[in-house]
């Protein structure tokens, strides 16, 4: 690890949102001098004499001038998030106060924190492993019950514990095999090959399950990408607006929230559905026909679910069947909706029954609940166990795949006459890639890449 990343400075940053909303702002310091630097501008008690995990009322002063009345929380290292001394100063949330206060702390010897630097320190000082640190970012970014739960599970170490156990078992075998190497010419076998093989098979199974959980994990974290397809004037925009407006109404019904609604996303039972190409829909571009097959396919391929909308007052059953055949060729789950059902007689409805559609009226907002149930059913998310360990990070998947490759080589080595040193090397490779996930193996580039995506103050 280079000295670039490990620094002894005491760092400071605003930990809360820098927006105008909210009554209180929290400024956070971390480092050996955190308490002394705060003490230099704080009037109340001598903070250097106070116990860890205590809160103190007082004023922040620049010379004789009182900047604000504040509460100071003290966490003495290693019993803190970063394992260093940490101070959190709660001030009134005024941009002016925050700037003055941070300015003062800088003058007294603190340094402005870089993006993610608090969490980086927590990682470097052993408070979190890398996958947990990444989960902190996911947790902060979570917008639905599902993404929250997956991030929380990862932050609390569910994933890490699973990997740790696998690593320990492998390390055990690696050391036995390496012991064999010490005996050189002598034909000794400390590591029981049958046991090793069954361990490898077990680990491969766990890893395969983790890799295949990525699809679900990713959907829970980022939402299900959905495309609404159908000819012009079938009611795509009307449907989209019906879904989105309902969502906005729900959100604004929650008293006291001023949360910005996320455009083009809806939340059904904690799962986010993200509509893609909504601009295209609003311009009533025909997703199926107008722009040529290639473009259509590209758009559709980004989706995990297609809502196929059909207007029975405009087209025949045969047209619908033909379009449905084209869509099924894409191998993406889709829901067939017959729109404008308000204009259909019971007899006309029966004609379309063969399509097993959901009948809706986007305009009258009829059938929307049935549609939502169908959306959930289609992506088979009703039964997702969010307390299962799910992989949500492409970096982790890549490392798991490399681990899997190395393990396959180990298994080959057991079944074929290869020497212990090759076996040992492949086990070490597998351990290396597992270690990349939790951060027991890292490079500065990797760390910079991960932590620079955090906000300042995290
Ligand atoms: P798009 O081109 O697929 O986006 O279609 P629009 O959403 O712009 O709708 C085309 C027309 O159909 C508009 O005049 C809508 O008011 C009308 N429309 C949409 N949904 C319904 C519905 O459920 N019933 C009826 N009667 N008209 C609808």
Commentary on this structure:
This protein has two domains: 11-128, Gyrase A, domain 2 (2-Layer Sandwich), CATH 3.30.1360; 130-439, P-loop containing nucleotide triphosphate hydrolases (Rossmann fold), CATH 3.40.50.300. Helices cover 47% and strands 16% of the residues. The chain is built from 16 helices and 13 strands. Strands 3-4-5-6-2-1-7 form a seven-stranded mixed β-sheet. Strands 9-10-8-11-12-13 form a six-stranded mixed β-sheet, with helices on both faces. Helix 6 (158-182) packs antiparallel against helix 15 (420-438). Guanosine-5'-diphosphate binds at residues 230, 232-238, 281, 284, 339-340, 342-343, 361-364.
Backbone shape: flat
Question: Main β-sheet, in a few words?
Answer: 7 strands, mixed
CATH topology of the largest domain: Rossmann fold
Total number of helices? 16
Measured on Cα atoms, how large is the radius of gyration?
29 Å
CATH top level of the largest domain is: Alpha Beta
CATH superfamily of the largest domain: P-loop containing nucleotide triphosphate hydrolases
Helix content: 40-55%
CATH architecture of the largest domain: 3-Layer(aba) Sandwich
Ligands and ions found: guanosine-5'-diphosphate
Beta-strand content bin: 15-25%
Task: Extract low-pLDDT stretches.
Answer: 251-262, 282-293
Subunit structure: Homodimer. Heterotetramer of two MnmE and two MnmG subunits.
Protein name: tRNA modification GTPase MnmE
Main location: cytoplasm
Binding site for Mg(2+): 237, 258
């Amino acid at each position: 690890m280079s000295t670039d990343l490990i620094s002894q400075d005491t760092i400071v940053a605003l930990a809360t949102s820098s927006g105008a909303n909210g009554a209180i702002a929290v400024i956070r310091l971390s480092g050996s001098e955190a308490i002394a630097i705060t003490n230099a501008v704080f009037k109340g008690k001598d903070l250097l004499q106070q116990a860890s995990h205590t809160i103190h009322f007082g004023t922040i002063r620049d010379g004789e001038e009182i900047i604000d009345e504040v509460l100071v929380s003290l966490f003495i290292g290693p019993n803190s998030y970063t394992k260093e001394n940490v101070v959190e100063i709660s001030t009134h949330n005024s941009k002016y106060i925050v700037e003055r206060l941070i300015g003062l702390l800088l003058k007294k010897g603190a340094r402005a924190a870089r993006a993610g630097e608090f969490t980086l320190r927590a990682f470097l000082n052993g408070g979190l492993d890398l996958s947990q640190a990444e989960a902190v970012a996911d947790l902060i970014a979570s917008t639905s019950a599902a993404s929250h739960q997956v991030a929380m599970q990862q932050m609390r170490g569910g994933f890490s514990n699973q990997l740790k156990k696998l690593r320990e078992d492998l390390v055990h075998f690696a050391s036995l095999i390496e012991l064999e190497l010490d005996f050189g010419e002598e034909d000794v076998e400390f590591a029981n090959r049958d046991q090793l093989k069954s361990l490898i098979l077990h680990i491969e199974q766990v890893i395969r399950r983790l890799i295949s959980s990525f699809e679900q994990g990713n959907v829970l974290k980022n939402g299900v990408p959905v495309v609404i397809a159908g000819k012009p004037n079938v009611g795509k925009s009307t449907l989209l607006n019906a879904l989105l407006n309902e969502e906005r109404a729900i959100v604004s019904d929650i008293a006291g929230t001023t949360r910005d609604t996320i455009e083009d996303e809806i939340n059904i039972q904690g799962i986010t559905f993200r509509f893609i190409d909504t601009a295209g829909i609003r311009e009533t571009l025909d997703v199926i026909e107008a722009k040529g097959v290639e473009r259509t396919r590209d758009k559709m391929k980004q989706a995990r679910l297609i809502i196929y909308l059909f207007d029975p007052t405009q087209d025949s059953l045969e047209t619908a069947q033909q379009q449905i055949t084209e869509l099924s060729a894409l191998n993406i789950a889709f829901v067939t909706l017959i729109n404008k059902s308000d204009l259909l007689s019971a007899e006309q409805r029966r004609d379309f029954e063969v399509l097993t559609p959901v009948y809706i009226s986007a305009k009258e907002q009829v059938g929307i609940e049935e549609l939502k149930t169908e959306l959930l059913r289609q992506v088979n998310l009703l039964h997702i166990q969010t307390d299962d360990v799910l992989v949500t990070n492409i970096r982790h998947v890549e490392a798991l795949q490399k681990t899997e490759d190395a393990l396959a080589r180990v298994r080959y080595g057991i079944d074929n006459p290869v020497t212990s040193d090759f076996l040992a090397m492949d086990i070490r490779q597998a351990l290396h890639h597992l270690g990349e996930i939790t951060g027991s193996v890292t490079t500065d580039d990797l760390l910079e890449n991960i932590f620079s995506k955090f906000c300042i103050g995290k």
